[in-house]
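BUG: 3D viewer hangs when loading the predicted structure for this chain

Environment: internal workstation, default settings.
Expected: structure renders.
Actual: progress bar stalls at 90%.

Input used:
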Amino acid sequence: MDLELYQENVMDHYKNPRGKKVMENATFSYTENNPLCGDEVTFYVRLDGDIIEEITFTGHGCAISLASASLLIEYLKGKEVDAIKEVTDDKIKALLGVPISHTRIKCALLSQKTVQKGLEEYNDTHN
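Structure tokens produced before the viewer hung:
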């Protein structure tokens, strides 16, 4: 894909986010925000054994932060739960596919950090 197609993809995920809804029967949820810009997301994850059966989010923020959440949901759904821990900063950048300035990197990585902290908290209380 060229840069223009990636930009269109980011805007599509921003305007039509996948999985943007509250999940009542989540195995775990976690909320995180970026106090510098006001972005906030809550991730909801339902596990079936070690499989991410469903993953959703709610929140508000800029195009980069919300597109990142939507793209991350598409990437993680159906994978083993350990995939959450394996998501790197570079993976988020690759999913977005557009250059991210140093001033917007926290926006791009907010979803990754949120779902990873949620899993860590869940593991701490269930192991």
